[in-house]
């Protein structure tokens, strides 16, 4: 399986990091070794002094396909999860300055926090509320209506480059409110008020 991630997909988040609003999706990937599941705790890697959380909606791909066309994109995901795209912000900043790829800042071990999945049936994907709490306080209050590129667009776009396989995951981007974590912090994620993930930083 592969983990495809979209960066800067909410205008307010692109702005908070002083990044331009993209005209086409910004895509990067994480290996399967990045997965952090079962509410396992996260650690702060030695190579960063600025580990950030980015709470995101994650799509579970349920069909193989390449060059997916817009009319069919909806049928390519069946479940969603709440995910955390852990980012070594200081390392990422250095990569950006040098024009280097982001993998060492974004794709390291356990950098892809992932909750349980919920079925998409009955959920309005165009108006889905999700929140991140840090030590009980809401720090990210997102809604998929604010996406720059919606889920179907992302599926069409990425499948031009990468064949989608059943079980692949797509992290769809984070809204404003990202920030650093320290040892002892707890991150919690919810979708439509439903508790999805709890992650201790240790
Ligand atoms: Mg992200």
Helicity level: 10-25%
Integer tally of domains = 1
Bound molecules: magnesium ion
- Structural class per helix/strand content? mainly beta
Write the layout of secondary structure elements.
Blueprint: E1 3-7, H1 11-16, E2 26-30, E3 35-36, E4 51-53, E5 55-61, E6 77-85, E7 87-88, H2 89-98, H3 103-106, E8 112-119, E9 129-134, E10 137-143, H4 151-158, E11 169-171, E12 179-180, E13 186-191, E14 194-200
Parallel strand pairs: 1-11, 3-8
Antiparallel strand pairs: 1-2, 4-7, 4-12, 5-6, 5-11, 6-8, 9-10, 9-13, 13-14
This protein binds magnesium ion.
The site of magnesium ion has 7 residues, from strand 1.
Structural overview:
- Strand 13 (186-191) and strand 14 (194-200) form a beta hairpin.
- A 7-stranded mixed beta sheet has the order 2-1-11-5-6-8-3, with helices on one face. The protein has a 4-stranded antiparallel beta sheet with strand order 10-9-13-14, with no helix packed on it.
- The mean pLDDT is 97.
- Helix content is 14%, strand content 36%.
- The protein has helices spanning 11-16, 89-98, 103-106, 151-158, and strands at 3-7, 26-30, 35-36, 51-53, 55-61, 77-85, 87-88, 112-119, 129-134, 137-143, 169-171, 179-180, 186-191, 194-200.
- It has 4 helices and 14 strands.
- Bound molecules: magnesium ion (MG).
Characteristic key phrases:
Fumarylacetoacetate hydrolase, domain 2; four-stranded antiparallel sheet; binds magnesium ion; globular; 14 strands; 4 helices; 202 residues; mainly beta
């Amino acid at each position: 399986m592969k983990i495809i991630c979209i960066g800067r997909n909410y205008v307010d988040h692109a702005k908070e990091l002083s990044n331009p609003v993209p005209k086409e999706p910004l895509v990067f990937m994480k290996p399967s070794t990045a997965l952090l599941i079962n509410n396992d705790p996260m650690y702060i890697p030695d190579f960063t002094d600025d580990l950030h959380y980015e709470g995101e909606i994650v799509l579970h791909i349920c069909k193989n396909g390449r060059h997916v066309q817009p009319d069919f994109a909806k049928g390519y995901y069946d479940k969603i999860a709440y995910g955390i795209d852990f980012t070594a912000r200081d390392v990422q900043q250095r990569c950006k300055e040098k024009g280097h790829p982001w993998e060492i800042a974004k794709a390291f071990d356990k950098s892809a926090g992932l909750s349980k999945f919920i079925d998409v049936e009955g959920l309005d994907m165009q108006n889905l509320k999700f929140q991140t709490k840090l030590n009980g306080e809401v720090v990210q209050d997102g809604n998929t209506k604010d996406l720059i590129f919606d889920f179907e667009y992302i599926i069409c776009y990425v499948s031009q480059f990468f064949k989608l396989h059943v079980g692949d995951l797509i992290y769809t981007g984070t809204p404003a409110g990202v920030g650093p974590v320290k040892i002892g912090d707890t991150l919690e994620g919810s979708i439509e008020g439903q508790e999805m993930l709890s992650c201790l930083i240790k």
